[in-house]
Amino acid sequence: MTSADPAAPAGPTLDTAHGSVVLPTFLPDGTRASVRAVDTLDLSTVGIEAVMVNAMHLAQRPGLQTIKRAGGLHRFMAWDGVIVSDSGGFQVLSLLRKQGKKGSIRASGVTFQESPSAKKIVLTPEKVIEWQFGLRSDVVVALDDCTGPEDSPAEQIASTERTIRWFRQARQAYDLQCRQRRMDEPPLLVGVVQGGTRPPELRQRCVDALVESGAQGFGFGGWPLSAEGELEREMFALLARITPQDAPLFALGVGRPEHLVSLCELDMRWVFDCTIPTRDARHGRLYAFVPEIADRLLTPDRSFYQNVYILDEENSRKDEPICATCDCPTCRRYSRSYLHHLFRVKDGLADRLATLHNLRFYTRLLEMIRAGRMAQPGLREPARLG
Q: Which keywords, in A-to-Z order, does the entry hold (predicted)?
């Protein structure tokens, strides 16, 4: 994998069998063992050191036997960096709760069927751990019961208790896998902290139980945005405050540039993952730092960057790059007018060049954050994690 810049300031690191990653860091969405439109060499080129995959999707297709035959997911997707695997519970439960798909949440786990003709999917705490060990992930995330901001206090309590119970079962399955496989460097086990937004004591209860059961990292459970679309910053601050200070924090699903800055004002232990930069890229929505970025501090608003919609007609006449200060392959070689042309004629190269740029924007943003370029940088002392 690409190692951290030796000249970068010391900070918390996520230590795994496939190397150490300086935090905070951003993981692009590689749900099905690929980040759409780019390959793993592209990822290394723009400074990506870790990716997020989805264990449930990969267990369905191509299947664990295919990945095992290839020698594990790293070899299967030709990636030397860190792999974090999510359980798939967020996707299934959001479909059950939000879209009314057929399925049920029980004490033993979750059953789900997207359509009458589709294969039934069964998620249990033990099965999800077994899947992730089969992938040979570096970081595994336990199954949790995800709720939304609109759910009642009674549902939040039930979700929290179910998540705690499932994590205890997941920890037992994790220990069994470690014994059976005789692993010298087992993956990091992450528990997801549920509890909604009120009362905060519910999240404290969840953290205490996960610590007692042996969680080695902590994810923010539930929807990261309020019903009004605002970042639940107060709850993220609580998570940073009540978790062990040597544990990495996983801001699951958080990905807006201003949200990264906002959470890094609280703490520097974050692992971010989101589909936003790659999805936006494929739709021609690109990011550019403001021209005076070298002389500015980062603040948790949108003032430090601009959105560039490459399909705007004005870009057909612009020969400059997307961002004048960017060193990505796209900005070093191509103009806005060329990229505009590629999107207009629907050439596949458009998605690749746009994705490379957006991912490099994110890695540059994190480099600035780690260098202390925030107006209110995180105040935690450096710690080794993992």
A: Metal-binding, Transferase
